[in-house]
Amino acid sequence: MIITAVEPRKKGLSALYIDGEFAMKLDTEVLLARRFDVGREIDDEELRACIRASDSKRCKDKAMWLISFRDHSRRELTDKLRRDFTEESCEMAANRLEELGLLNDDRYARRYAADLVSLKHLSERGVRQKLYEKGIDRALIDEVLGELFIDERAQIRTIIEKKYARSLHDEKGLRRCINALARLGFGYSDIKSVLNEYTETEEHYE
């Protein structure tokens, strides 16, 4: 196989032409590093190695870009990367970011859980579910939650004051509030107890 053209494309890619026909787009830096120049003869093994190297580099670049915007759990990051790259490249990228200290599930879980409590005002059950959805190990979830103090009734009061206080004397509004709090993982007894502070009737809880 003879490389007959290497043409620059967008986003750091170059179109590789082999034997006069377009073959694929690969990372430009990888092509240069491997000296894939016009007129060079290559075999299948060299081409496959270049494809793997290109995929690996692009995957690491994408991982760094994602991490630069916000922290991720390992599974969250690799799930995003798998949309465009091979499993091998995704795992290598995640391993490299862990080596650099940029990817750390322990640190991520603690920060995320604290934000869910202080900013989203979730219940313990709600925080547990969110961490699980991010791929955090169950043992680590238990450890993180064991370190947090979550006053569930205080959380409910905050949510009510922010979103539902004006509509609690309307049956439809009260029901909407109850359903929303239940979806956030709060228990029936806590919801009922706090709502009793805002309304005198309990008929809506049955």
Can you walk through the features of this model?
The model has no long low-confidence stretch (mean pLDDT 91). This protein starts with a strand and ends in an 11-residue tail after the last helix. The chain has ten helices and three strands. The chain has a three-stranded antiparallel β-sheet with strand order 1-2-3. Strand 2 (13-18) and strand 3 form a beta hairpin. It folds into three domains: 3-99, Winged helix-like DNA-binding domain superfamily/Winged helix DNA-binding domain (Arc Repressor Mutant, subunit A); 105-147; 152-205, no CATH class. With 206 residues, the protein is mainly α. Helix 3 (74-81) runs antiparallel to helix 4 and helix 5 packs antiparallel against helix 6.
